[in-house]
Amino acid sequence: MRSYRDLFRTPEFSPFFLAASAQTVAQTMGGLALGVLVYRATESPLLSAVSMFGSSLVQVLGATFLLSAADRMPPRAALTALPLLFAAATAALALPGLPVWTVLALVFAKGLVESVGGGVRWGLLNEMLSQDGYLLGRSVFNMMSGLMQIAGYAAGGALVALLSPRLSLLAAAALYVLAAVVVRLGLTRRPPRTAGRPSVGATWRANALLWSAPPRRQVYLALWIPNGLVVGCESLFVSYDPDSAGILFACAALGMLAGDVLVGRVLPPRRRHRLGFPLLLLLALPYVPFLLHPALPLAAAAVTLASVGFGASLVQQERLVALTPGGLTGHALGLHSAGMLTTQGVAAVLAGSVAQLTSAATAMTVMAVASAGVTSLLMRAGKREERRTGEVRRPAGEGAR
């Protein structure tokens, strides 16, 4: 599979893509409306932020206790039921007079369920496309996510300003229902990828198996930590330059789009597999000079260049799929998604804490240096693993690969 046109010619890809797009817009609209609603009720920036992004912070709990369900549920049934649950929760959040603790409980419960949904979705994408098509397909979803988030924030902002946050939440609930209908009508029925019932024990055993192999462990760390720390840099755009934060966010989206196209479409396989760590370094290093408060054109150029490095996640995901047994693909990709979102949420809190003690510019540089340092350590560990593996294979007569 060599082109985006081939992707959309693949049976079921188009409805799968459309349903995910509707769900992304719904999530963005609903988060913005809920943040405004909570802030108006409490005048607390912290509670407002937690209501918008708190679901990301509990993803790790879903990955710990629930993720075995990702490969043990029929994909079409799961991807139909989950948006309906999200629609019900979002509509419930629009009810007047809800206590804040009830709102946060619904947000956290939604985050737990979302951790399973990510595993089901990306496992099905890998199953739907040919062996060489997952990376290209995931690059399209990455691009869609950025564009749909922009659309969701724009539509949600307009609805909140012109009507009310509660009506925006109801509109988001309707989009979730639409996503469920598209999945039900557009996808064919498939059996679960793994037999058995989901359970906490099965989740722990699968997590232990995935984590036990050093190559997979290194891939997970590369997927979670370096880009999570850089997302901490992005979380400080508003405090770094309130008047130009929108420009910096737009430049970040543009750079990410360029990185997805570069890795997913332009680079041949033999070259892109070598670029995982260099792209992670590119992701961090342009943020280091922010300590000097560069002028806006230079800052925008640095953010754009750095965000090209997010293409590293496509390289690492391709390697993760290659290292994972077929029956655990959904679980493995769900663990990646849940760990990534959790790390990003923790990094945003950490970056904000450092900025509170120093300044936004200093915190951005600290997070960037930390990201580059982690990448350097992972590069060394990867080289040691390659040497160790080569030393083990040669006496057995297999030769180095």
Keyphrases for this structure?
mainly alpha, 18 helices, disordered C terminus, 401 residues, 79% helix
What does this structure look like?
This protein has 18 helices and no strands. Residues 391-401 have low confidence and may be disordered. Helix 2 (13-42) runs antiparallel to helix 8 (165-186). It is an all-alpha fold and 401 residues long. It has helices at 4-9, 13-42, 45-57, 59-65, 75-93, 100-128, 134-162, 165-186, 200-212, 214-234, 237-240, 245-266, 269-272, 276-284, 296-308, 312-323, 329-357, 360-393. The two termini are 25 Å apart.
Write the layout of secondary structure elements.
Elements: H1 4-9, H2 13-42, H3 45-57, H4 59-65, H5 75-93, H6 100-128, H7 134-162, H8 165-186, H9 200-212, H10 214-234, H11 237-240, H12 245-266, H13 269-272, H14 276-284, H15 296-308, H16 312-323, H17 329-357, H18 360-393
Helix pairs in contact: 2-3, 2-7, 2-8, 3-6, 3-17, 4-6, 4-17, 5-6, 5-8, 6-17, 7-8, 7-12, 7-16, 10-14, 10-16, 10-17, 10-18, 12-15, 14-15, 14-16, 14-18, 17-18
